[in-house]
């Protein structure tokens, strides 16, 4: 793509100027190129033009007539209704706008107007009316959208739909001559796709014969071409990352396996077949001459820690150190205590390094510490490993690409294992983690019972208290989770400290504990130990218990203000119960629910499988935040969608693989190489061998 004119600041386009340019920046439009790729989020079909007497309620139509009456009413202090009556000599129709009083200055009686919308009968079933219709004053026919498919863009305050449509149109008039294809012509011909210039033009101004349904689903051939371009650049970069990694010289760790076998023989449970398979994959990988770079994913409770520990022992037996980096102090502490207990009797020295436990630096530097567990403290400048052979990143989506790279730099091409408890659909894994090898723990340990999940109204306090009492009296323990630590004046949320005090009053015969991230480490440790040992009946906590906390006797999870939590987070919290032999329940208590929150709560009731939860979360929120796309160092997707465009993702990967086989350096396609570098500007390591 020729960037000569596309980098021009948007303010120089006709109809913009400095003031309007500042408003457009809020939409992410700073340059001509930004405007070119600012695509409509939906389309209105205004081809259906009818006389008023022909109109049927519920059918979107375009109507042209004259304004014969204008009325404004204010039925409530915060509500104004502007109503106009339009006539085309065959009948009358009302158009109503809510809280848009400025329109009163725009509309005048006897003015020609064109309105578009979906007519309905008024509350009396007598008159036809259209609520909040789009309109055009047709006394001035410039920029008319009559009888067209009209693009609709997301707006910001100060920019109207009509203004933005005009700005985009003017931008395209200027920009189209500068747009050049950078995907090789033979690929586009083979896939029977339109040119890039044609695709961009028709996405903003669709031809009259196109299917409106395909446009609104972003499945027109024009949308698919733009989606392909983005997926193609993404897949090329990922494949180059993987190629560069495979060119590195690794450690080739090949122990006899005695330490691992001794460990596996002394743990009090049998490995699942999935755990055995994944351990074999990892041990084989660590023995290769190139550095291991493997993603380990598994649902809550699938046993990722044991698999990671097997990898760490493989490194230790070869004389190398292992480092496990966790995102929070409490998770690092939990790993330290669990792993230390599991390794009792083995000649392995485990230490912890966090901002609170900071005495292990000398043990790490001398090599006396075989396994080091910590938080971001591990990547501090003063921390030196004597011989780092394996890096394990837990809950990897919480770490940025730079943080992961800094830990790897503590060794010389160490093997890397990244773990996530957020199950990832294969298409997503191909994209976000396409440069990693991929292991899945798709089997839960035997005996894990599904957790019954219910939503209980916040007003039904007696039922909730009775459930807590029954659970404890029958021998179980209870989590009560709050989203905040202390009372907040800005958010109407019950805080953990308030809840803790209230539950102490309500249940004076039960022992109530409090756990949150701001407590001193020693105090947190004591609280968790007391809860594990059954000395605490009710643990009031924030999301510090979201991952890693394992108390088999905890059988009831109550999540207050459940609407405030993400779906993956709710699933993780639910995973803290159901870890023993007793049946377990998860109670979600919402206070205020949006439509999105209702979808999340419904998904929690309907599904227990982490992969299905992940799919639902992608539908609701999009994949970027869920799987840490932004944290992974991958570019943001602006056009493509992982769920909607799975087929194009597969095609793009196939074509990217074929191109790199035919042209490993991409030198024969310099325009593509330039575009790739621009798209992946934050990942210079992609181009080490390209």
SSE arrangement:
Layout: H1 17-25, H2 32-36, E1 42-45, E2 61-76, E3 79-87, E4 92-98, H3 103-106, E5 112-117, E6 120-121, E7 128-131, E8 134-137, E9 149-152, H4 161-175, H5 185-190, H6 196-204, H7 212-216, H8 221-246, H9 258-266, H10 273-286, E10 293-298, H11 304-317, E11 321-325, H12 329-342, E12 350-353, H13 361-366, E13 371-374, E14 388-393, H14 401-408, E15 415-420, H15 426-432, E16 437-441, E17 452-455, H16 461-473, E18 477-481, H17 496-506, E19 512-515, H18 521-532, E20 538-541, E21 554-560, H19 567-574, E22 585-589, H20 595-606, H21 610-621, H22 623-626, H23 629-632, H24 646-662, H25 670-679
What does this structure look like?
Helix content is 37%, strand content 18%. α8 packs across α24, α9 packs antiparallel against α11 and α10 runs parallel beside α11. It has 4 domains: 48-147, Beta Barrel (OB fold (Dihydrolipoamide Acetyltransferase, E2P)), CATH 2.40.50.140; 185-191 and 209-247 and 645-690, no CATH class; 258-441, P-loop containing nucleotide triphosphate hydrolases (Rossmann fold, 3-Layer(aba) Sandwich), CATH 3.40.50; 452-607, P-loop containing nucleotide triphosphate hydrolases (Rossmann fold, 3-Layer(aba) Sandwich), CATH 3.40.50. The chain is built from 25 helices and 22 strands. It starts with 16 loop residues before the first helix and ends in an 11-residue tail after the last helix. The model has no long low-confidence stretch (mean pLDDT 87). The chain is globular. The protein is an alpha/beta fold and 690 residues long. The strands form 4 sheets. A 7-stranded mixed beta sheet has the order 6-7-4-3-2-5-8, with no helix packed on it.
